[in-house]
Amino acid sequence: MGSNSLHVLKGIDFNVKEGELVSIMGSSGSGKSTLLNILGMLDEADQGSYILGDVPIKNLNEKVAAQYRNKFLGFIFQSFNLINYKNALDNVSMPLYYQGIKRKERTDKAMHYLEKVGLADWATHLPSELSGGQKQRVAIARALASDPKVLLADEPTGALDTATSYEVMDLIQGINEEGKTILVVTHEPDIAEMTKRIVNLKDGRIIDDRPVNQVLAKAHV
């Protein structure tokens, strides 16, 4: 920022195995968002290496970064980030459009994932006609549509009430049980306890990284 540089992450050494469900916690300013942005190929670390699958993520131009994001990653955001003038089906099929998949196959796949999140009957509805929980389900279906290696969820329950949050976490747990690798950034301890491992950040460093006895969201839904 101007002549000042801010050292956000300091010697982060972090591994996630395929099929893990990990939460990243930390107060505001701890480095959570920066870490997620690096993992999501939205930012690049000044030093060190980031390897996704067997691919080193380094010095990518924006076009290649976009291709890698679309191939490897699915994003779920606190604010859903749905396109307001497109219905649920079109929102879910958007990543497939950018992969160059033909319309019929896009529609079939998108419908499959809407069914998976329990929203097949809402396929033709616009985001403005959906509840917060339904919007997040559409966002999860969209994140799954391109069959990414990793789902990155940034405060996925941040805009939802408790009951709806647990319904969304029940869905995320189910997707993880099918083998999908998922990272959840959250500041809510009860949500973190629904993952299988909690990583705590403070002042840009990992201060705690531990497995947890997962709380099943279904028990609270």
Folded structure, characterized:
- The protein has 221 residues and is an alpha/beta fold.
- The chain is built from 7 helices and 8 strands; from the N terminus they run βαββαβαααβαβαββ.
- The strands form 2 sheets. It has a 6-stranded mixed sheet with strand order 4-5-6-1-7-8, sandwiched between helices. A two-stranded antiparallel ribbon has the order 2-3.
- Helix 3 packs across helix 4 (103-116), helix 3 (88-98) packs parallel to helix 5 (132-145) and helix 5 (132-145) runs parallel beside helix 6.
- The termini are far apart.
- The mean pLDDT is 91.
Quick gist of this model?
With 221 residues, the protein is an alpha/beta fold. Helix content is 35%, strand content 17%. The chain has helices at 32-39, 62-72, 88-98, 103-116, 132-145, 162-177, 189-192, and strands spanning 21-25, 51-52, 55-56, 73-77, 150-154, 181-185, 197-202, 205-211.
Rg over CA atoms: 17 Å
N- to C-terminal distance: 45 Å
**How many beta strands in the DSSP annotation?**
8
Q: From N to C, what is the helix and strand string?
A: EHEEHEHHHEHEHEE
> Shape, please?
globular
- Read across the widest sheet, the strand sequence of neighbours is 4-5-6-1-7-8
Largest sheet: 6 strands, mixed
Give the strand content. 15-25%
**Number of H- or I-type helical stretches:** 7
Q: What is the helix content?
A: 25-40%
Q: What are the low-pLDDT stretches, counting only 5+ consecutive residues below 50?
A: none
- The pLDDT mean sits at 91
Overall structural class, as computed from helix and strand content, comes to alpha/beta
